[in-house]
Amino acid sequence: MSQNKKYYWLKLKDDFFERDEIKIIESQRNGKDYINFYLKLLLKSLKTEGTLRFRDAIPFNLEMLATITNCNIDTVNTAINTFISLGLMEKWEDGTLYMLEVQNMVGSETSWAEKKREYRNKIRTMSSKRPDTLKTKIRHVRQEIEIDIDKDKDKDDEEAEKYEELNEMLLNAQVAKDKKNKQLENLSQANLQNQILD
To answer: Are residues 44 and 52 in contact, defined by beta-carbon separation less than 8 angstroms?
Structure first.
């Protein structure tokens, strides 16, 4: 069985670069590098709900962030201080960096949901091209399912009938046995009374 992976993506609004914070960052010396670094941090924090930690064990330090984002250490240091001062990031007491906006920018789906979405899109495309064929196929599939269900119901009914017959036979046998035991008991009591009278 294949593993059901979960995919994440970053949803940027079309006015992302028009926001005041982003314009302020871009206007600085190396501002474009800071924005690039910011986007990399957002992507890195998608799966961890905004926190930047190494394997959920320790917070990333400046050197680690410079390495994983392929940015200069000075760029990383200045950018992080800028992000914190503009309210785009928080630094917690334990040193964890938290991307404040990531919760509003995350999209995700499992691989199963992706396949299901692709299948639905394929159905929509097919229905717009050949609506009669699609309707026929859908009815055909439903009919096959109903036939299979009916066959299963018939099998279940047959088995239930067999069990009812078997139960009835066992019940009749038990009733006959009880009658015979009652007769033997009556006979035994009659013999006992005859012996007493004799």
So the answer is: yes
Cβ-contact 46, 18 below 8 angstroms? no
Please state, in angstroms and rounded to a whole number, the distance separating the CA atoms of residues 143 and 149.
10
**Rounded CA gap, 197 and 42, in Å?**
107
**Range scoring the smallest mean pLDDT among 7-11, 36-40, 56-60, 77-81:** 7-11
Q: Quick check: 8 and 106 in contact, CB under 8 A?
A: yes
Within 10 angstroms of residue 148's Cβ, the number of other Cβ atoms is 10
pLDDT in tens, 74-109: 988 898 898 888 888 888 888 888 887 777 666 555
Fold held by 6-107: Arc Repressor Mutant, subunit A (1.10.10)
**Is the distance from CB of 113 to CB of 6 less than 8 angstroms?**
no
Q: What is the C-alpha to C-alpha distance for residues 8 and 47, in angstroms, rounded to an integer?
A: 7
**What would the two tokens of residue 153 be?**
């119901």
Torsion of CA 75, 80, 81, 84, to 10 degrees: 160
3-state secondary structure of 65: helix
Give Rg (Cα) of the chain. 38
Does the global pTM surpass 0.90? no
